[in-house]
């Protein structure tokens, strides 16, 4: 078992750095040779042997993970796949309540759609009605995930409440600053009769 790398935890360093330099000089190569090549050190001082004994189980666990990872890991069973797919179980009511209580989400939606908190609550109630209609029509009890629910709300709001184009009213100049032509003044264009 030769490896190109291994995990060296900060706790190893913290423990080893407290040791005298001669023990440090023993333990560092012992750890590296064991983790990279599987060689168990033979002649360590008692202190270095004690330190190695404490570190060895962590190296063994990481080596086992590495070896299992090379094999692709354990295959998921049908039961695990089914439970992963059905793990999300919030109802429409619970989803809406969660969005109603999430202050950060509420602020984001209110800013994005330029609405008040009261309007947001009204729209959430209408959204819940819409979701319950889907339940009646499609037999769907909940979204696939909470993120899916949030995306659905955003999409629904853009369709149910298309944002109006807001135009900034132009200031109307007073008569003293811009002269208006009198009736009959020439605007610089040609009349059709003059052609």
Automatic annotation (TrEMBL):
It comes from Duncaniella muris. Residues 169-195 are annotated as: Disordered. Residues 96-159 form the DUF7833 domain. This is DUF1376 domain-containing protein. InterPro entries: DUF6291 (IPR046258), DUF7833 (IPR057155). Transmembrane segments: none annotated. Residues 5-81 form the DUF6291 domain. It comes from the Bacteria.
């Amino acid at each position: 078992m030769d490896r190109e790398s291994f995990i060296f935890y900060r706790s190893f360093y913290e423990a080893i750095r407290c040791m005298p330099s001669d023990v440090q000089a023993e333990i560092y190569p012992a750890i590296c040779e064991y983790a990279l090549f599987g060689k168990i050190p033979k002649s360590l001082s008692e202190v270095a042997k004690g330190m190695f004994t404490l570190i060895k189980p962590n190296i063994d666990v990481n080596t086992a993970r590495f070896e299992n990872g090379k094999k692709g890991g354990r295959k998921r069973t049908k039961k695990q796949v089914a439970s992963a797919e059905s793990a999300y179980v919030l109802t429409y009511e619970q989803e809406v309540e969660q969005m109603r209580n999430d202050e950060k989400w509420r602020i984001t939606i209110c800013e994005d759609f330029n609405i008040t908190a009261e309007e947001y609550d009204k729209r959430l109630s209408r959204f819940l009605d819409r979701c319950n209609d889907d339940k009646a029509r499609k037999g769907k009890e909940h979204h696939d995930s909470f993120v899916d629910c949030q995306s659905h709300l955003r999409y629904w709001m853009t369709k149910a409440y298309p944002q109006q184009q807001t135009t900034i009213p132009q200031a109307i100049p007073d008569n003293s600053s811009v002269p208006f032509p009198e009736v009959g003044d020439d605007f610089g264009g040609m009349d059709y009769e003059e052609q």
